[in-house]
Amino acid sequence: MPNIKSAKKRMELSAKARERNRAARSRLRTAIKNVRSAETAEAAQSAMTQAISLLDRAARTHLVHPRKADRLKGRLQKKVNGLTA
Questions:
Q1: SS3 breakdown of the chain: % helix, strand, coil, rounded to 5?
Q2: Which pLDDT value is given to residue 1?
Q3: How far apart are CA 28 and CA 69, in angstroms?
Q4: H/E/C letters for each residue in 29-58?
Q5: Mean pLDDT of 31-47
Q6: What is the DSSP letter of 2?
């Protein structure tokens, strides 16, 4: 346990940020899973728009690396295009 007031505050803020990041990462993983498991092209496309939005937000806040977000978007788009063809 911290003895200094500022260290205690940082610990509390870190805990809040950790929970927030954990929830956002979970939401992101679920959205990606929904795109990958979509059966029809329409379902995949609607899931794709949500996943792109979450990936862009995660990249902007550095929850995931921006290049990783771009790579995931490309791979998901390739999967969706395969369903439409």
A1: 85, 0, 15
A2: 84
A3: 11
A4: HHHHHHHHCCCCHHHHHHHHHHHHHHHHHH
A5: 94
A6: -
